[in-house]
Amino acid sequence: EVTEPEETEDDNNNNNEDQLTPEQIERYSRQLLIAGGFGVKGQLALLQSSVLIVGAGGIGSTVILYLAASGVGKLT
Questions:
Q1: Mean of all residue pLDDT scores within the chain
Q2: Coil/strand/helix, residue 59
Q3: Which residue has the higher pLDDT, 55 or 50?
Q4: Alpha-carbon distance 24 to 70, whole Å?
Q5: Distance (Å, rounded) from C-alpha 35 to C-alpha 22?
Q6: What is the 3-state secondary structure (H, E, C) of the chain?
Q7: In terms of pTM, does the model score above 0.85?
């Protein structure tokens, strides 16, 4: 007889990191629907990423806006 391992509190915490919340799905829904896009796994990787920004002039300030909107996890 095969039994499933019991879930621990640590397992539940890890599962939350492997899924988007309903709020995140709503926020990133347009880019998640792009055919041939990077999908949920890619969005999760993007949320875990960080970007260092040096200079926020004319182009830099626009880039910061787009990076934040796309879901980059940490902007420095």
A1: 81
A2: helix
A3: 50
A4: 11
A5: 21
A6: CCCCCCCCHHHHHHHHHCCCCHHHHHHCHHHHCCCCCCHHHHHHHHHHCEECCCCCCHHHHHHHHHHHHHCCCEEC
A7: no
Q: What is the spatial distance between Cα 27 and Cα 58, in angstroms, rounded to a whole number?
A: 26
Convert the pLDDT of each residue in 10-45 to its tens digit. Answer: 444 444 567 899 999 999 988 888 888 888 999 999
Helix, strand, coil distribution of the chain in percent, nearest 5: 55, 5, 40
Of 58 and 9, which is predicted with more confidence? 58
The C-alpha torsion from 47 through 28 and 24 to 21, rounded to 10°, is -90
Q: Could you tell me if 16 and 48 are in contact, meaning their C-beta atoms sit under 8 angstroms apart?
A: no
| Distance between CA atoms of residues 18 and 46, nearest Å | 12
